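Onboarding guide, step 5: your first structure request.
Type a short instruction followed by the sequence, for example:

Predict the 3D structure of this protein.
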Amino acid sequence: MAKDRRNKAPSRLDLENEVRADKERRASRATPPPKVTRPSPSKAPQPRKKKKKKLSRAAIIIYSVLAALIVLLIVTLIVGGIYFVQQFDTQAPTRDPVSPIDRDTTPIARREKVGYYLFGILGEGHTDSTTMLSVVCHDKVNKTVNVLELPASTYLETGDNWKVDTLGKVYANPKALDWCDTCKKRLYAPEITEGEESATHTECGTIVTSKKGSAIGGIVDFINDQLGLPIDEYCILEPESLEILVDSVGGVDVELSSARMLGDINYEPGVQTLTGPAAVDFILESEGAQRTANQREVLGALLVRLQRMSDEDINAKVAEDLMDSEHPMRTDLAFSETLKNDEITALISSFKDVALDKITVRMLPGESTYDSEGDHVFSAHKQELLDLLNASYNPHGEPIVMTDLLIPELSNTVSADLRQGTLNQYVSDQVGTILDTE
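The system replies with structure tokens like these:
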């Protein structure tokens, strides 16, 4: 028979198990589950900040020295670069060491009325004495040109301004200039204070230094100071430069009195078309009055042919050939080669409307004599020169007075031979041409 388990009391083991189970149930209800925390998607965890350390005194000094060295290096590079560019610019072959930028020029108000130009041809040695120098006065209002030819033997009298005693030697012997390094300019006697140890620039007190003079600048100084005339532009040719000019216009027609060999070519008497080398020989192989006549004939013929050319041809065939050659014209026209060609073209073109019979050529009034050393020189006649300058070479300016003429007068015993004439008296019809010499 089955046992009846109803109302039976639990055993001690059952009671202990019951108590243990009850405790475990209570413990599970009293202790909550651990929370799981996740970082917010909008906020990244921040790194732990480190405490800033203070720089030591030694570190500050080192950093300051390094910064100063860097600044000094940058300044040195900038200044060095500027110096290099300046040195590079001053080495342009068509410029004088010191350009006569402080020369007397035509006042701006009168430049539409008149222009003054220095034109010259160097000797065969290129740095030797000049064989021909002329001052050209172009009266743009009346369309006339007056040329004053200056003999190479014109007496200067050595002194503060010249190392030599005749005009033709000035180009090869430029006198050193007094110079202020602070003001960057040439100094003249009134601007200099003589001291016990050295001379100084009166205005700023800088010690006066010496700077290499300009060959052409010395000639311009002569015209400014000795003749009282301004110079707006200068154009100086080597003999080879003149050869290029003549060939670029197709040669020049001149009249030969006898058969001659010129420039390695035999020419018959009569009107002949000379090449560039022949035209140079035609001038340089003559002397005295004949050389004067020959150079007038060649230069007049050259002008006629240039007057007939268009500006485009002058620029392309004349200016470009001349300035791109190994013997460019020495000029102070625009520095850029492109602009220089344009300026040369414009200068030539400005003479196109001047007729040959309106171009008058004269010699400097004076006579041949001897200086104190017994050397043969040419002495100016100052009063005759003053009258001539005011009558023919000063059309729109204030009268020139005797104190403006510093040129010395050694002798005045005979009447001056000006060898005056107009270019139409010298120039043949320009109809011939030469073959291309290239």
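Each response can be followed by summary notes, for example: The chain has three domains: 96-173+216-237+366-400, 177-211, 238-359+418-438.
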